[in-house]
Protein 1
Amino acid sequence: MELNLNQVDYLQVGVTSQKIMKLLPTVGRKATQKPVFKSLPGQKISRLELGGALGTPQEKIFVCSGSEVRAYTKKGKQFLTFEANLTESINAMHVSGADLFVCASYIYNHFCDCKDQDYYLSGDKINDVLCLPVETVGRTVPILACQDRVLRVLQGSNLLYDVEVSGPPTVLELHNRDGGKDGEDVLYGTADGKLGLVRITQSGPITSWELDNEKKKGGVLCIDTFDIVGDGVKDILVGRDDGTVEVYGLDSSNEPTLRFENSVTSIQGGCVGKEMYDEVLTTTYTGWVSGLTTEPQQMVAGPGDEIKMSRETQGRVAALRGELEQLQLKVLQGREKYQQSSQSSTAVSAVPVFSINDKFTLCQDDASYSLTLEVQTAIDNLLLQSDVPIDLLDVDKNSAVVSFSECDSESNGNFLLATYRCQANTTRLELKVRSIEGQYGTLQAYVTPRLQPKTSQVRQYQIKPLSLHQRIHTIDQNRPMNTLRLMGQFSFAEIHSWVVFCLPEVPEKTPAGESITFYFQNTFLGTQLDATYCKDDANFKSDNISTISILKDVLSKEATKRKINLNISYEVNEDSVNHTLQMIHPKLEYQLILAKKVQLIDALKELQVHEGNADFLIPEYRSILDESAKLLEEYKKQPAHLERLYGMITDLFIDKFKFKGQNVKTKVSHLLEILNNYELNSLMDFFNEA
Amino acid sequence: MLVPIFTLKLNHKINPRMVTVGKYDGVHPCLTAATQAGKVFIHNPHTRGQRPTAHRLSQSTQDSDISLLNINQIVSCLTAGTLGPNTTGHTLLVGSQTNLLAYDVHDNADVFYKEVADGANSIVLGKLGDIKSPLAIIGGNCALQGFDYEGNDKFWTVTGDNVRSLVLCDFTGDGKNELLVGSEDFDIRVFREDELVTEMAENETVTSLCHMHGSRFGYALANGTVGVYDRTARYWRIKSKNHAMSIKAFDLNADGVVELITGWSNGKIDARSDRTGEVIFKDNFSSSVAGIVEGDYRMDGQIQLICTSVEGEVRGYLPASKEMKGNLMDASVEQDLIRDLSQRKQNLLLELRNYEENAKVAVSGVSEGESKMGVIPANTQLQTALSVRRATESQRAHIELNISTPNAETIIRAVLIFAEGIFEGESHVVHPSVQNLSGCVCVPIIPPKDIPVDLHIKAFVGGKTSALFHVFEITRQLPRFSMYDLNVDPSAGQPTGRVTFSINDRPQRVVMWLNQNFLLPEGIDSPDITFNALRGGGLLKISMQPSGEITFSTDDIDLAGDLVQSLASFLAIEDLQAEADFPIYFKELQDTLSEVDEFHSVHQKLTATMADHSNFVRNMLVQAEDARLMGDWRTTKKRYTELYDLNRDLINEYKIRSNNHRALLARLKSVNQAIQRAGRFRVGKPKNLVITACRDAIKNNNINALFKIMRIGTSSS
């Protein structure tokens, strides 16, 4: 079924946070609902929820800012202020009747009638909190969405069970707003753009479905369910951080299908809130509140040449113009004052920090980092600087003109200096960065918006030594593993901080307990790493010898820095190298065949034109011609894939012999020769013989 | 929203910028484009049915609407139009690196086939100046050549570098067409027949030009810039990270004024207003755009805009109907207005907040916690200085841009310089490491050419630990001749080359010119001065006699030409005759000319051998086939082995021939450049005379006369 939605802008407020807008329920027969939202200026409000006594319209407004929760009636009267007594500020909140659930970074607290009930300390950052509806379930089941790819289902102050999901969950919402028939259906969205439905039963989770993010759209920021199509079945509305709004419908087998797609490119990054009768209402990071309405926009072309504006819009335009004029006057005064102050020798110039919404995440499918930056006003230019060698990749969505500057890596340690000059009205920039494992440092982004007086803000992003690794839940125990063992006088906190330094997606807080185990997977090669450590003892196991080598180098360097004596022992499993090569083999072979085929396409096409048809070609070539478009697309998607694989094989080769105490750098050219005439057996022989 | 009225998939690749529409029978427009394997295809959907196949033309077996034309050379440009005086249909013109073919598609016959030594990078068909018949003008390596319908060479001149784009338009408004030439030395030159009217310097290779209306024309550069000029003034330009493949003027919104339609390398098509550059329409192809043309492809009396992609996709757009009110995009005017106003309000509010917060801090004083805010004294100023630095052990000769703040507590975190044409990209960044942070940054600049450059400097100033920096924006101009140092090494040899001419102006005016165009630390008051050329080495001596005779002494012939042109335009001299002598360069040129002769004779020799060999091949093949039919397998095998050897020889010879040809082309290019350089010593009429005379001398192979003309500017003594 086709769905046409038109965009209507309502107003622009300040920078908004995630999950910050709700629509008040209709009272009586009032036709339109009133949106409620809060914005950043003043003290930052991090969440907004609607609540009320169970069974009555949910029209009390709860907001949290800092470590405080306030509640207002819908007329705007404040009736509750509650200090949660958390050391950190609240970043997630849920209200259900008299129950209040609040979460700071790692801490979850449950209050009932403002009395402390339960407390839980999570292993990783909590992104969102939800409670199954008490009316239908009959008990309080809080669910935490945690950064380490787990939904934690609690019972009182204890963990009931974990639900593993494929990406870091960012948002939780009850399916159909009431959790379905049994009130146990929970929708979740992840930072890497996946969407899923899971049933939280008493005994365990049942995963209904999960949608992959094939088109590489942004991460999910907000979800809602509403029957926008008007067919009696509720649809799922999804808002993503790249400004896309999606509507998924559920077909007869309850599988979601994409019904409507609207890339809201002019408004970027956003949180979908709720909707009016026939409208999807959205707020964006830049503060726009707009609706996507199902009603066709009415364009009245009058008899004259001018397109008639509705009276309402005319009024709005006039009001806006008036406001603008006044503002301009004020700004002029401000500017003058500012100019004057530059004459005085004692005055200072201090411009407040503008807010930047930034994200630096590892993309699983192409093993590269994507950096997104969003500012409330248009960006003028962006300077990227890095002290490690990294590749900057072109992103189609990005229209800014990039220019690479010469780097003086010796004297100033710059390995990348690039400027992005943005086109007018660019508030959001997306970049892709490819890192090399083992080379670590900092990427800095200087963002300069088009705002007077001109300022530039720097943001820093760590490129970790094992930058291409990602947390997983289980690992394959049957692989041949190399081990690295560190022993010495170090505390649990110290070893944890080193692991944080080396690997992404590890919580900064030292975990509770005596020891901890984390599992990782290399997103590019698929090799795995098991990190188990406690006070004075740390074990790292990986089937990739390069991973172990990098860890050994970095950890011993860190320990030397802190003057800690480390006893490093390692055990190299000879089979692991062949195992890794065998893991690389299918990828390498695929890439080589692809490259070969792509090379042939042009020549074959020419032959085809020359001969008039392709019947004379052998079937293999004919199939290349038939699939040419697909092959080219595939080839374009993975730039420098082959080079990266070659680089990793070379590293593997060098590392293997490094552990034996041999320097084989002289043989690398020979290795490359073998790679150029690639065959798995000859490569394995070379590794074994050399 | 404007949608295409027809879409075709042609299944043939299209070479970028080689697309045209021709009415070869005088009625039906046919899309014509160069494709792979040295072929040109003609798409003619109007007269379906069997057409005879003969000569060059053959029917494509894939698609009956398409005929293929075998050129057997790599096509480099093509166009179609009326060339002959009494022909009803259009003539197709196809240029390659060695030849120009004029072909009558309707009659399936060659009109003429000319060898063009300088190659044809670009072609345009039309009337030029006072020349009566329409000309097919090709631009090659530094040369422009125009042919009439009989293949007579009616027009010839040289230009600064390889020609990449041509267009005919009435630039001066005199009712006659001038020729606009975009070349690889980043210049757009305007020729009134063979007289150079004016030139405009851009900052990249000019890849496309198109006539808009009146004296207005659009241009595209290799770095992704497109824009519009009106005469010599640039109206607007925009830059994209993609490359503009093709530009075309077309009135898409039916408001009576043409828009600039641009096809981009990422498959995007956009239409921009000729006045502001504002996008009024856009669409996307899945692959790079190859060319944009117009024609009445549906034969219904309406002209369509026809866009083609390199993969052979063709889309036709009709100009917008009246109902659309020029609103081609899928947007609502009122929504846009409200959005725009709100955005402005938001910006003002934010700016106001900046001032208010600033005032607050000013009152309360700086507390320690706010050090992240990047507080700097309000009277902080940025000083910039330009100076010439000679080469040292570690660094090449450069111009040093020194940026400093006087305050001790503020540092410069980074400096961004945006400038055109002097850096590899469009910007240069200096980002000192944390240890090297200070209030002073030196930026070495090495301009590769003698061009005036605006340096747009953005300096990030703040405290040592701050995360927020104030951005200081300053623009400095680098004078045209900046890489020349006043400190002269006394031991350096005197330059042998010189150019001398007389002017009727006071020496003060020349001094003024010197001060404006050179980087002089404290200015000078006499026009006699010696510089050390930092880029090329050697000395540059400028002297002026009381009689008004000026001499530039240098061994750099290009520099001498640039100086003459710059001074002449500064003093507004219309005609200037000069004497020049560059013994070293003239000696080189003489060698080049004799090499040209050599290569020519080698070329002829090789052609002769090749003809011999192809005769052999023919004989051998007949013998081999005979043997095969007789069943004499030994002889067959022997003959085929011989044939194989012969084939290898032929390939080797071909390689020699192509190397020879390449060398010949390079020499011819430098000869053309020599003529151009000789022209640059003069201005106005004397300049054109020199160029024509030089060419005549080369045509008649009169080397002595050539050098004489280059020296004194005329052939007659």
Note: Chain A has four domains: 9-26+41-293, 356-463, 469-572, 575-689.
Protein 2
Amino acid sequence: MRVNASFICALSPLAKIRYCIFMSLTVSNLSCQRGGQTIFAGLSFELAKGQAMVLRGPNGAGKSTLLRVLAGLIPPLSGRIDLNGCGHKNRDDFQEMIAFAGHLDAIKPQLTVAENLRFWADLFGSNAFDQTMQDFRLVEISDRLSHTCSAGQKRRLGLARIAVTSRPLWLLDEPTVSLDTEITAQFTALIDQHCAAGGMALIATHIDLGLNSSTELYLEALTRKTLQSLPESDPFLKGDWT
Amino acid sequence: MKALLIRELRLALRSGGGAGLGLAFFLIVVILVPFGVGPDPKILAQIAPGTLWIGALLACLLSLDRLFQTDSEDGTLDILALSPLPLEMLVAVKAFAHWLTTGLPLVIAAPVLAITLSLPTETYIWLIASLALGTPALSFIGAAGAAITVGVRRGGLLLSLLVLPLYIPTLIFGAKAAALASGGGDPMPALMLVAGLSLFTVALTPFAAAAALRSHLG
Amino acid sequence: MRLSGRVLPYVSVIAVVLLAVGLIWGFFFTPDDFRQGASVKIIYVHVPLAFLAINIYFMMFVTSLIWLIRRHHVSALAAKAAAPIGAVFTLAALISGALWGSTTWGTYWQWDPTLTSFLIMFIFYIGYSALWGAVDEPDKAADLTSILCLIGSVFAVLSRYAVNFWSQGIHQGASLSLDKEENVSDVFWLPLVTVMAGVFFLFLTLLLIRTRTEIRNRRITALQAREIS
């Protein structure tokens, strides 16, 4: 099965067709550690084609870290992530399917709104530039330098990047921060639209978005007791070199 | 790739005269030398190639710490890592853009400054050639250093400490080529070595820099 | 760790014995050089230190590779532990060389290829250690320093040739440096080898102590992190 999966990844034109048929995200027994601290452990969940998942949990529960791990930016300590049959170790093919929006909007203040978005559209080889400019109501501010934009406008531009990249899995970290209610509703509709078209979305948020078809994943901050019950993963505490 | 290059150039031009600043710094460094060693044209002509090379090297270093720093701070680096462009290519494009905005203006300005240092006219062509062939190496080595020190405490200072020793071979060959020409020797071997060094760093350092950037993302 | 703990006393004793024998032998029971007089005895300090200074660098190159390929934590820590020792050895070699040079060459410093290369190496050791200190996350620090060490190694070789190229032009072949290997006769050679072995064991002792400290340090940090959470 595993050999098969990497085979699909290798044949990329063919694989692109396959992705549409077997669209799914499978996370099995995922653990992550940062700076010797276990952030989460033994995490397993599945996300099917057309589904959105809302990630909830208190501050410090590891929502952001989970999203970064799923984006392939942080290597997990153990476990497996399968996206359309492509394992996370096959980094280049894996990341080809991901659109990620973290806390930061990745906007260059010296460029205009249109230039910022145009760059991402060109880099990701997308032709959805005009449509996205309209969808996010960026047309009226398109020639404005980004550093003169308000926080909400910047956020909109940051999220427009997600839409313009046309990738199947959206990973969104608190996307609605500093958005007004109207835009939030529009953005929610856009996520629904993305899912209806067969995409997937994973959203870490504290508010109720009111998505059409969504499941919820609750990440709990690990207590000391659960931490102690985990098998020792820090090589310096395992007793290898006592 | 073209999009990235255009964006890099646009950013450099709009961020408070990025290219101009390096050039001004180069000017200042070179102008300071006669104040330090005295206005004797003979001495100045002798040390001109070395002075111009060291000036170019320092000016290059000045803008290096921003090569990945701003991208790392505003989250751009995360998104670039997810783009279809491999990180190695990204580093190469950024380093090339750095050369276009920093190295190239220095090459063009060097002969003008060489006049003030009374360098013999016939060696100008060799000075330009050595700088043109050598400054890409400075940008690419610097890119590796910048990638290592992104987001590191006192990264700018550390960058100079790490990168300057790596500049020594380029400096030696580059300054030697110009100095040999002004001393009546044959500058070709040194020039070839400079060119070889540049090609070598262009081929090699993007991989090291990409590895360092991946470590930073994680 | 257990093995290193058991080996440590022996290694340190061997180091002390070899150093004592070699140095006393070299300093008091060898004839003075007919040209250089008693100052030739600096060779027993200078050559072993210089020899080790280069080889410590090589050891760091190997351990860095091991870290990048196999992710073996102790390997990275051994490289970290070796760097300051290397820096001190390099500095000591430079200083002892300068003292030696002052009597035989009549100058403390000459921009000779070998001397210059050692100076560059010293700067590299400093930069490498500084990078370790500047990065908070230990694994990331290990990654970055290893990458730096690999780049540094490539450029160390380049610098070596570049410096030769550069200095030829200045000296026109009239180099001041003595060709040490050829000048040394057996009378000097045997105690020199003894001291070299002694300095090697001294390095091993220091390396073991420092690596053990680093490992314990990491354990303490991990335990503290666990306490807070």
Note: Residues 2-217 of chain B form one domain.
